[in-house]
Each structure stands twice: as structure tokens, then as C-alpha cells.
Write a structure and sequence with these properties.
Shape: globular
CATH topology of the largest domain: FAD/NAD(P)-binding domain
Number of domains: 2
Mean pLDDT: 93
Low-confidence stretches: none
Number of helices: 16
Strand content: 15-25%
Number of strands: 19
Distance between the termini: 21 Å
CATH superfamily of the largest domain: FAD/NAD(P)-binding domain
CATH class of the largest domain: Alpha Beta
């Protein structure tokens, strides 16, 4: 097997050691959130009545509640959150707000070939509407529509860029950059060429997006209860009752936006698995350090490997660097103990200085991790339960910053019984295959991870397992 650029050009151990000496275990985005955007909300006590109750105050729940109030300002909407607004994936992701609803065109085209053009259009429309909502409501989320750069970092990836370039020949927002051009744009010795999709993605401050969505909800009368863990869902009488240890919400309809956490519906118990993703954030760079990189267009960046890295600049001059290892733990548990992986952070730090060797000496201020809700189709699935009174969406697989808004629209359409372009989609109407129970889930997921790493060491060639998964509609090519 061959080696990757990160093995051929690894920095010294002393460079990595120095960079992590003073790193804090904690989520930079949440630490960076102004106190005014993080009010301490009360827990649910007693019985509250509503037209719509939303379980979960991450992006999915917040977008759904906000859209519900924008559709009908008189609708009584309540959100119930087990912890704090945006504390899980919504407050700790990379802040890539992408147009794709299908985790990339290739993944979508392989699953819904007859709908891919519609899905692409709806995804662009969704991102445009997010940008418009941010402007209209004055949401201070550090929104930047800078697009995304996809660099080839291994020779075999150049052919993939050529195919992409040919397919997008008529799209003025898809720009091919040869080796000289891409290094003028972002100066990394690992870059051989790249595609820059100039309008397909935006950058946001993740915790600010959650906090500002919550503020916009409350400004319109939505009640948000924090530290109110939902223990059960009762629909034995008309409507739906959401039950916590401290109280009840009785509502006509409910939305389940729990994503990676265990579903309140038996039918969804095997539909997602939690996969842990790891991130580093640098200290602010000096003007000289920024000059050595360039990056004047401030794109988000995601390389083309199966085990890929994603990275982006922040508005206060830092670089977030994450990805590569995505770890699954036996039993489908979401456990804070899984977030502490010094070995993974060391590997990320090493890959960072391979990507930007001119930044040797820079330190990382924060290291953290979080669980991604992955589905077998690598993008969200949707549905209703309890006689159409409960709607759900989950399985965003790391691309939920933008697509959660689309999910909110879908769930509100489903609850209203409306036939719309969204609800007619096969992606919305059909559920993906569930993951198998343990131990088959752990064996299959970890064998797939091993196979993807092997492909990255073998010119991208997919082994029999990956080819079989592709044929079954369970494969994924990032």
C-alpha cells in the first residue's frame, strides 16, 4: 500500500507537542458566545399548552419553530431542550452552511437520480433563503457566502477534479484552479489543483447561529424551556403530550428534533448511529502568518480524500481544522467520555502543519469533539407518526447547518398535510435502511472505516466491501 501526503510530509513530534501544550478542552464557539446571547432559561414546570411542541433546541428544532411562527404568527409554539440551546452538534460544528441537501451531488445522484436536479435547485434555494433570513431578521451569525474550495492533495484525485470540471462546464460559479492558481489562492504545498464552488456554501459562527435563532424565536413568542429532558411521548388522546421530569406540554402536534440522541419513536431506534468527529482551533494568526497563507477569499476548504479534513478561517483570525477520523463506539451510546481523544488531536495537529508548514510554532487554543447523527443514506430522512400528529427528521450526517432549515419546512408541510414539491420528493417519502443491531453495526461501521482508509492509501481504489455497499445503496464517497 502507498502512503499519503500526511505520512510523507509529517512535521516533527516537537512541533506537534508545542502546538498542543496550552490547548484547552472546550468548544471555542460556545466560549466565544457573548453572555447576552446565552440567557439562562427556566426548566419546564407544571403543564403548558401549545399548538406545536418541538423537542430539541438545536438547528432543526429552532428553524422549525421559527418557520412555524413566520407561517402563522398566532401559532403557540413551545421548545423543550434537555440541556442548553445549541449545546450539542449545533454549537460545535465547523460552521459550513452548505447548499447540498444530499451530502454532495454524487451521493444524491446515486440514490435519487431522477430528482437530483430538483434537489440541487432546492438546496441552492434553501441557502439563499437562509442568507435572506439572516439579513431580514438581523441575525448576528457572522454569515459569509464565500463558497468552498476542494483541493486535490494526491495525484489520483486530479482525475476526479477533471470529471467535476467537465460536468460543471456551464456553471460560472464552479471555477477550476490549477496548481499555480490554487497556491496563489491558498498557499499549501499539499495542493495539486482545486475546484472552487463560489456560491455553494457559506461560513457561520455555529453557536451564534443557534443563539440568534433562539432569540428570533423568542422575539416572536416561542417559549423555550432548557434543562428539561423529555422522557416520553403520549398520544393516547387527541393531540400529543410531551412528558419531562418537571412537567408536561400538551399540544396539537409535535416535532422531534433530537437527531443523534435516542429517538422517542421505536421505529427510529436503529435509523441513526452517533459518529464522533474531532476539531482543533488555532490561536489568532499574526498578519505575517496570514500573509504566508493568502486565503484572501476566505473559502471553507474540504479536501477530496475519503477520510477528509475540513478547515476554515474565523472572523477573529483563527483557523478551525477538523475531520479525518470519525469514530464509532459499540452500543450507539452518546457519551462525553468519547470526546477526549489526545491521539486524534495529535494526528490532526500533525496534518495541520503538513498542510501549512509555514505556520510551525502556532499553537491551538481549543480542542473538542461531538457526535454526528449518521444515517445509511448519509443525509436526512423524514416522516410522521402517531396519526400524522408527530413529525421527525434526523440523520444529517454532518451536513445539517443548512439542511436543517429545509427539514423544518418539510416537517411543517407534513404536519399540515400539504402536498408540496418538498413532500413529493422520494428522498422525503421513503425511509432509508436502518443500521443493523449490535454487534453487526460496530463490525460493519469499523470495517467500512478501515476500507476507506485503505482506499486513501491505494489511489482511491475501493475494495470489495466498499463496492458491495455501493451496489446496495449504502456506500459513501465523500
Amino acid at each position: 500500500m502507498g502512503t499519503t501526503v500526511f505520512e510523507r510530509s509529517a512535521p516533527s513530534a516537537s512541533v506537534v507537542d508545542h502546538s498542543l501544550e496550552q490547548t484547552r478542552d472546550g468548544v471555542f464557539w460556545i466560549d466565544d458566545l457573548p453572555a447576552a446571547l446565552r440567557p439562562d432559561r427556566q426548566a419546564l414546570r407544571g403543564t403548558v399548552r401549545a399548538d406545536l411542541v418541538v423537542v430539541g433546541a438545536g438547528y432543526t428544532g429552532l428553524w422549525t419553530a421559527l418557520l412555524a411562527k413566520l407561517r402563522d404568527p398566532h401559532r403557540r409554539v413551545v421548545i423543550v431542550e434537555a440541556q442548553r440551546v445549541g449545546w450539542a452538534a449545533s454549537g460545535r460544528n465547523g460552521g459550513f452552511c452548505e447548499a447540498s441537501l444530499t451530502h454532495g451531488r454524487e451521493n444524491g445522484a446515486s440514490r435519487w437520480p431522477n430528482e437530483i436536479d430538483t434537489l440541487e435547485r432546492l438546496g441552492r434555494q434553501n441557502l439563499d433563503e437562509i442568507e435572506q433570513t439572516v439579513a431580514d431578521l438581523g441575525l448576528d451569525v457572522q454569515f459569509e457566502r464565500t463558497g468552498e474550495l476542494a483541493p486535490a492533495i494526491e495525484e489520483h484525485q486530479l482525475a476526479w477534479l477533471d470529471e467535476w470540471r467537465a460536468e460543471a462546464a456551464d456553471d460560472p460559479d464552479v471555477v477550476y484552479l490549477d496548481e499555480e492558481a490554487v497556491r496563489r489562492s491558498v498557499n499549501s504545498p499539499t495542493y495539486l489543483a482545486a475546484i472552487w464552488e463560489k456560491r455553494s456554501s457559506a461560513l457561520v459562527h455555529p453557536a451564534r447561529l443557534a443563539a440568534e435563532l433562539a432569540r428570533a424565536c423568542e422575539d416572536r413568542g416561542v417559549e423555550i424551556f432548557e434543562r428539561s429532558h423529555v422522557t416520553s411521548l403520549d398520544s393516547s388522546t387527541n393531540g400529543v403530550t410531551v412528558i419531562t421530569s418537571g412537567g408536561w406540554v400538551r399540544a396539537s402536534q409535535a416535532v422531534l428534533a433530537t437527531n443523534v440522541f435516542p429517538s422517542l419513536l421505536t421505529r427510529n431506534k436503529l435509523m441513526t448511529v452517533p459518529v464522533y468527529d474531532y476539531v482543533l482551533m488555532t490561536e489568532p494568526l499574526t498578519d505575517e502568518q496570514w500573509s504566508s497563507i493568502g486565503w484572501a477569499d476566505r473559502q471553507g476548504i474540504g479536501d477530496m480524500a475519503n477520510q477528509f479534513h475540513y478547515y476554515r478561517p474565523t472572523q477573529d483570525g483563527r483557523i478551525l481544522f477538523g475531520g479525518y477520523d470519525a469514530l464509532y463506539h459499540y452500543g450507539r451510546r452518546v457519551d462525553p467520555r468519547y470526546e477526549h481523544r489526545p491521539d486524534v488531536w495529535r494526528k490532526l495537529a500533525s496534518h495541520f502543519f503538513t498542510t501549512f508548514p509555514q505556520l510551525e510554532g502556532l499553537r491551538f487554543s481549543h480542542e473538542w469533539a461531538g457526535a454526528i447523527d449518521s444515517s445509511t443514506q448519509f443525509t436526512a430522512f423524514f416522516g410522521t407518526a402517531r396519526g400524522g400528529r408527530v413529525a421527525y427528521a434526523a440523520g444529517f450526517t454532518g451536513l445539517g447547518v443548512g439542511s436543517t432549515r429545509f427539514a423544518g419546512e418539510v416537517m411543517l408541510d407534513l404536519l399540515a398535510g400539504d402536498e408540496t414539491e418538498r413532500t413529493r420528493l422520494e428522498m422525503v417519502r421513503k425511509r432509508p435502511l436502518p443500521f443493523p443491531p449490535e454487534p453487526a453495526a460496530a463490525v460493519g461501521i469499523n470495517l467500512t472505516r478501515w476500507s476507506m482508509d485503505r482506499a486513501d492509501h491505494n489511489e482511491g481504489k475501493r475494495n470489495l466491501l466498499l463496492k458491495t455497499l455501493d451496489a446496495l445503496g449504502l456506500g459513501f464517497d465523500s
